[in-house]
Specification:
two-stranded antiparallel sheet, alpha+beta, binds zinc ion, Peptide Deformylase, 3 helices
Length: 170
């Protein structure tokens, strides 16, 4: 496994539509393993292949139990409810915006060996599914917010929503 470099906003690779994965081979497995290691090192909860410079429909999401969910050729098949909250991106370090997303989403995807599966989740994991899948079409969360928070606005948000910033229990 290896840590890959995360590209930052401004790099045209983040604006491209990614191609579907057709070969579920060792190369894909290496990419997925490297992405998991890169995500862990960066301390994020999701990472899409274009963020490491690979224009393929691959992303990973860490769920609320700390499990890495690998999504190949993912599609959102249903969405319910609404949530509004703070969102950031490893490709836009240190910046945050307030984004409205569905509260619960169901995703159909393939696993690393090509088998189709469906997965449903809510809250932060649902937010993350939406965010990562958008990356595969060249979109960033900043398109959903009127502005990124200033340092003062971020401080204020954290004071107003302390429950979102508690350290998760082991
Ligand atoms: Zn992102």
């Amino acid at each position: 496994m290896a840590i890959r470099k995360i590209v930052e906003r401004g790099d045209p690779v983040l604006e491209k539509v990614c191609r579907p994965v057709t070969d579920f081979n060792a190369r894909l497995h290496t990419l997925l393993d490297d992405m998991a290691e890169t995500l862990e090192e960066a301390g994020g909860v999701g990472l899409a292949a274009p963020q490491v410079g690979i224009l393929r429909r691959v992303c990973i999401v860490e769920d609320s139990e700390g499990e890495i969910i690998e999504l190949i050729n993912p599609e959102i098949v249903s969405a319910e409810g609404e949530q509004r909250g703070l969102e950031g991106c490893l490709s836009i370090p240190g910046r945050y915006g307030i984004v409205t997303r569905p509260y619960k989403v169901r995703v159909r995807a393939q696993d690393r060996d090509g088998a189709f599966f469906e997965i449903e989740d809510e809250d932060i994991t649902a937010r993350c599914f939406c965010h990562e899948i958008e990356h595969l079409d060249g979109h960033l969360y900043t398109e959903h917010c009127d502005h990124l928070l200033s340092e003062e606005e971020l401080q204020q948000y954290m004071e107003d929503h302390p429950e979102e910033f508690e350290e998760p229990e082991e």
